[in-house]
Fold:
Amino acid sequence: MAVDFHNVSSTIGFIILITSLGLCVNFSLTVFALFKKRWKFLKITESVEEGGLKHPHLLFGNLRELPPTEELRTMDFIHRNRSCENITRMWFGPFECVIIMISPEYVRLALANADTKETSFHHYLQSWLGDGLLFSGGAKWKRHRRLLTAGFHFEILRPYTDLFVESTRVFLDKLDQTKGEYIDVFNFVSLLALDSLLKCSCSYESNCQINEDNSYIKSVYTLIELFSDRLRFIPYYIDFVFRHSPMGRKYNSHCKIVHDHADAAIRERRAQLQRMEKGGSVDRKGKYVDFLDLLLKATDEDGHGLTDLEIRQEVDNFMFAGHDTTTSAISWCLYDLGRHPDYQQQCRQEIDDLLKDRGTDHLNWDDLKKTAIYNIVHKGKSSYTPTCT
Structure:
């Protein structure tokens, strides 16, 4: 059979031409979108304060001014912001900018904006967190928020008190083992928060405060670290470059580990609930309703619930946002109490008075209403130190 090589080569050449044109168009649109974003940020930040930062470099922005480690970057970030009165900014390369609002008046205006949910860093977390409550908007956010209303009710925390106490005892035992050495309390508190969240959200006993080799825990920490590292290397802002880089492949592999854990938990719990509906017995340690139960049982006015993918995204959002903010809030509270021994002693005395004559050191839900001094200290902390770092 004769082959017309001229036609074959013409076809191959045409395919290469079309592919090249497609790549060029895609590249041009990407570059246009990036410069459009830069122009938008430049207009917004024309009159904002420098916040102790140098004028941003055209290519690197303020990246070269950032300290080398996450802990030092956090402290530097906070100290710089305290030098401003209203609003400041930080450029991550030529196209990404973070606008930081200090004045309550600016925060009020931002919250009144319908587009507040949009963030330039969202797509960097898309493959991990998807479109859960943290980043979704519009009709999808409203539907999911309505379905999860029960999960945000304050009273739902009541049965979790024993779990919080259990996790905190492990935390205190670990602190006792340091024998008075100087430690980075943030790492200890981070594991405490993650341990508590996993128990309350999925009834999952990770023992992560004792055994840090848990694959899920290690992957969550790795993903947070890789996200932070990505922001410091400008070429990785381009998804195609990052996806095919060693860091991108590592990021995707850990995403798969986290997703596989969540998918397995969802399938197992759904099967349990189905057996319960049919009158079967279920061997389950926890006797309380956790976050995963609420997600699986939630239905809208048409009787439609969340898909397994939507449930997984909400669990991942809950773990990411809840773990980080809880860790920061507790760590800063401990820091402030350490700097003010007099208030620390007042809080200690208040707890001692509550536990007097009980014969146990176990606090319960109703005790929280009686800790007036601690509540004042904690609320005061929230007014000038961040819960997001």
Notes: The CA atoms of residues 80 and 114 lie 29 Å apart.
